[in-house]
Write a structure and sequence with these properties.
By secondary structure, this protein is α/β, with parallel strands linked by helices. Helix content is 38%, strand content 18%. Helix 8 packs across helix 9, helix 8 packs parallel to helix 10 and helix 11 crosses helix 13.
Length: 351
């Protein structure tokens, strides 16, 4: 972190971090601006009082948590994915003090489809580690892995290592097919980009699965996209030729779609080489079904306290009205946001 008079002004990847040096994306670069945002609150807020003291906040929160515990109702902590051992330890200590507490992890950009698919396919509720540098053939269905999908900076470094002048000098360069509706950064770098509609992604994957396995899984027809149909059959042959050295990914958050992708990767021997389930990506652990259940619990009046940590579901949740209606029925609504946002403005405490 580059500083001026002790003030951070620029964030760059640490070249001495070894395997942990994954680069910095635009979000990481821009995060330093939050330190100097004039819209940040200067004092905690209690029931619209923007000049509340910390003593008042502590007294109110302790009182409400005691009421929540004695009422037998639930306490929920809503956060984005947490990887920090120290933060998880604090949550565990809080839960020990208030046993009705449950941590609900919620990500604005959800990857629950991949997590659930791997749980169904392999019994491991994880996002696997993808090794694009070990893939001689990459097939992507609307996964912008060079841009915003999962870990763009890490995947870019892997991707380039198998497609630069050094790999070409060694007589090796990966091939990349991209099937997608809208143009993406990844699509512009593909060797072959085939346009497909969003509604055609499922049938396209079924077509590819049938081409690889020789199966007759129903629903794989693409009558209105002959180009994609031909390309998929060609890709199927190439995937078989690159068994153990190929990788198929999808940007869909649909569980059934990701299960089909798992089946394709299993058929071409990707697991253990280009896909690693034993060293998963821990950046995203949000659980959509758990968050949906929280909304139902709030609407049923079963929740006495909700604490929001580094999350703003009031902005990005799909069923916004159900969320806001349910939240209004909760006694203690505490946000740890450093400013008034769509969620903290619905809370009676911002601290």
């Amino acid at each position: 972190v580059k500083t001026r008079e002790g003030r951070p002004i620029k964030i760059e990847p640490n070249l001495n971090a070894g395997p942990f040096n994954r680069g910095t994306d635009a979000l990481a670069q821009a995060s330093v601006l939050d330190l100097y945002d004039v819209s940040k609150l200067r004092d905690p807020v209690l029931n619209k009082n923007e000049k509340a003291s910390w003593a008042e906040i502590d007294a109110f929160v302790k009182s409400e948590l005691t009421k929540a515990q004695s009422s037998g109702k639930k306490i929920r902590i809503v956060s984005s994915s947490i990887n920090s051992p120290s933060t998880l330890a604090v949550v565990a200590d809080f839960t020990a003090a208030y046993p009705a507490t449950q941590l609900v992890q919620y990500d604005a950009i959800s990857y629950t489809g991949i997590i659930k698919a791997n749980e169904n396919s392999f019994g491991k509720a994880v996002i696997p580690k993808y090794n694009f540098d070990k893939a001689d053939l990459i097939v992507s269905f609307a996964a912008d892995f060079l841009g915003t999908w999962l870990s763009g900076e890490e995947f870019t470094a892997q991707y380039v290592s198998n497609r630069d002048y050094t790999s070409l000098k060694n007589g090796k360069m990966s091939r990349h097919f991209q099937f997608e509706a809208g143009m993406s950064l990844t699509g512009t770098n593909a060797d072959t980009r085939v346009p497909i509609k969003l509604s055609e992604e499922g049938p396209a994957l079924i077509t590819l699965y049938n081409a690889i396995t020789g199966g007759n899984l129903a629903g794989g027809a693409l009558p209105n996209n002959v180009t994609a149909d031909k390309a998929l059959k060609l890709v199927g042959k190439e995937l078989l030729q690159n068994r153990g050295k190929a990788l198929v990914v999808s940007g869909s958050n649909d569980v059934s779609t990701q299960i089909l992708v798992n089946a394709i990767n299993s058929a071409i021997g990707s697991y253990g080489t280009t896909i690693d389930l034993d060293n998963p990506l821990k950046r995203y652990a949000g659980n959509d079904s758990q968050f949906s259940e929280l909304i139902n619990e709030m609407n049923r009046g079963e929740v006495a306290a909700v604490l929001f940590l580094d999350s703003n579901p009031g902005y990005d949740v799909t069923n916004n009205k159900s969320f806001t209606d349910g939240l209004s029925k909760v006694g203690l609504r505490l946000s740890f946001s450093d400013r008034k946002d769509e969620t903290s403005s619905l809370c009676n405490v911002i601290a």
